[in-house]
Amino acid sequence: xxxxxxxxxxxxxxxxxxxxxxxxxxxxxxxxxxxxxxxxxxxxxxxxxxxxxxxxxxxxxxxxxxxxxxxxxxxxxxxxxxxxxxxxxxxxxxxxxxxxxxxxxxxxxxxxxxxxxxxxxxxxxxxxxxxxxxxxxxxxxxxxxxxxxxxxxxxxxxxxxxxxxxxxxxxxxxxxxxxxxxxxxxxxxxxxxxxxxxxxxxxxxxxxxxxxxxxxxxxxxxxxxxxxxxxxxxxxxxxxxxxxxxxxxxxx
Length: 252
Known about the structure:
The protein has helices spanning 49-57, 69-75, 108-121, 123-133, 151-162, 167-175, 178-191, 196-201, 203-207, 211-225, 228-235, 238-248, and strands spanning 20-21, 31-33, 38-41, 62-65, 86-89, 141-144, 249-251. It is of the alpha/beta class. The protein has one domain (20-95, 103-247): Alpha-Beta Complex (Protein-Tyrosine Phosphatase, Chain A), CATH 3.90.190.10. The longest helix has 15 residues, at 211-225.
């Protein structure tokens, strides 16, 4: 019998540019992450009917929103009346980069440290996300922020790291977001034509997807916690991690 082809990494939506499957990555004990079980994305507040049809085809049960309260208020949230889908608002930070931070965004070490700050400042949301994702009844699930690379990249790195995915693969997954950033920037220009200067000012923050940034973040995790196991211990989420591995891993 001819084996079925593996699903594609990128999932096409009309209004999402950075919706990706986290399946198929090598993990601990010779296993790999399950396809069509966990997804990462950019904003999900402007979905079209065609987009909802794609979401239904993926059988998504949970949407985890990592954005700030202000972003949810200003840009909208995932609808509460979508049958069979539960929405969780789990902000990883209360503040977004300000104009004064833009020059620093060219320093990958600065960005890596900012990512690392989410581990403590967003610990409550991070723990809640691990609990949600470790329950098979909540899967398939998708988590997202606004552009799907920074806060979403941190949660993706944590989940993949806890599953035993090698650091270099986590970095490769992070860099895949670069393919969507130009599209997202153009979308913002169209959505906010009266704020062209503001969008242009923050373009470096949006476009920056450097492998050394994620590598630096992973280095901070290893330096501060010893390993992702050490991070799980610091978060007191050992049982959730065990459930996560049982649910999200399969034989290679």
